[in-house]
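Structure in, sequence out. Go:
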């Protein structure tokens, strides 16, 4: 198997080189809902360095663009070694996707696994949703 990148793993190199990408929306005049569930999100607690695990739910109504899925996968995997709070992670994901896509509406829910007997769910939104 061929290896590349600083760690010798092609996945690590792909994550480090990744840029979120957008594609043209095939139906920009129609307000429809796109849903993504990302059940294996991980990041690191900025205080302890211990891993945090979450289900990230992204819901959005595109305007002119949709997100390219491989770039989204690699983007999300880029958080695995990042020191970031639950609140900051949810807000950063929303900000990055809104900046890229300029959607009609978007919601990001970061549903973190219980740690230290506390369950955290962070919900952030942008824009106004049209009912479909």
């Amino acid at each position: 198997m061929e290896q590349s990148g600083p760690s010798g793993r092609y996945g690590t190199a792909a994550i480090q080189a990744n840029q979120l990408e957008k594609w043209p929306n095939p139906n920009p005049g129609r307000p429809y809902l796109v849903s993504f569930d990302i059940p294996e999100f991980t990041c690191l607690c900025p205080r302890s360095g211990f891993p945090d695990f979450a289900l990230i739910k992204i819901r959005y109504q595109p305007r002119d663009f949709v997100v390219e899925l491989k770039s989204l996968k690699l983007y999300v995997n880029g958080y695995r070694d990042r020191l970031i709070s639950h609140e900051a992670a949810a807000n950063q994901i929303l900000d990055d996707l809104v900046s890229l896509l300029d959607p009609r509406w978007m919601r990001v829910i970061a549903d973190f696994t219980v740690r230290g007997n506390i369950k955290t769910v962070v919900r952030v939104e942008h824009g106004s949703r049209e009912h479909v």
